[in-house]
Design goal:
231 residues, alpha/beta, Rossmann fold, Arc Repressor Mutant, subunit A, 2 domains, five-stranded parallel β-sheet, three-stranded antiparallel β-sheet, 11 strands, 42% helix, globular
Length: 231
């Protein structure tokens, strides 16, 4: 049984060969593409669990490719880059990436990131948990990961959905940054506050009637975030 189906998009043929060999040996089904355009075509032709996407490609760069993938798909995306600045991390996450890994990286680190990204959180809120939101005009379909806010529909990526369900399972409780990162991204995380800032903003755009004045997903300064669930 395959551990997951992964598409590697990178213009470097040696990296593609190494990725294919390494990941295949760990049970993943691998295909690759040598450009953003080729990767987008492959995603139109077949479904994948995860995309490993190089940020610095000639022609259509990784950032543009990521945005185009995310405009039509909720597939998990890990960006690969040689640049380790916080600004570029935030740009990658804003473009729709789920995670970010800096070259050169070790095989154990890459495998850990892939496992964490493909991990699904088992705890889901019940129908009754969601009723107070429905009364405020926010409807969440757990099976399709679709959110409708006063008639405006959008779908959540797997990572956004994991973060939202973790909040919903702990309503009206301040959750520390480290706890959120380790619960949703994995035990190797804890200091990547930029991940939370980006993903909380992404969630607010999808679940809040006015994202600039959040009613539900509240920031508790210096402490963490809290999901305010009306009684």
């Amino acid at each position: 049984m395959s551990a997951g189906k992964i598409l590697v998009i990178d213009d470097d043929p040696q990296i593609r060969r190494v990725m294919r060999s390494t990941l295949s040996s760990h049970g993943y089904q691998i295909n690759d593409a040598r450009s953003g355009e080729e990767g987008l075509q492959e995603l139109r032709n077949s479904s994948y669990d995860l995309v490993l996407l190089d940020m610095n490609m000639p022609g259509m760069g990784g950032m543009e490719t990521c945005q185009l993938i995310r405009s039509s798909s909720e597939v998990a995306i890990i960006m690969l880059t040689v640049n380790n600045t916080e600004r570029q991390k935030v740009e990658a996450l804003d473009a729709g990436a789920d995670d970010y890994i800096t070259k050169p990286f070790s095989t154990p680190e890459l495998l850990a990131r892939i496992r964490a990204t493909l991990r699904r959180l088992p705890q889901l809120p019940s129908y009754s948990d969601l009723q107070p939101l429905a009364e405020q005009g926010v409807k969440i379909d757990l099976s399709s990961r679709e959110v409708t806010v006063h008639g405006r529909a959008s779908r959540l990526t797997a990572r956004e959905f994991g973060l939202l369900t973790y909040f919903l399972a702990r309503p009206n409780k301040t959750i520390a940054h480290r706890e959120l990162l380790q619960a949703v991204w994995g035990p190797d995380y804890g200091d990547e506050l930029e991940y939370l800032r980006v993903f909380v903003n992404r969630l607010r755009k999808k679940i809040e009637p006015d994202p600039s004045k959040p009613l539900f997903l509240v920031t508790d300064a210096w402490a963490g975030y809290r999901f305010h669930l009306p009684q």
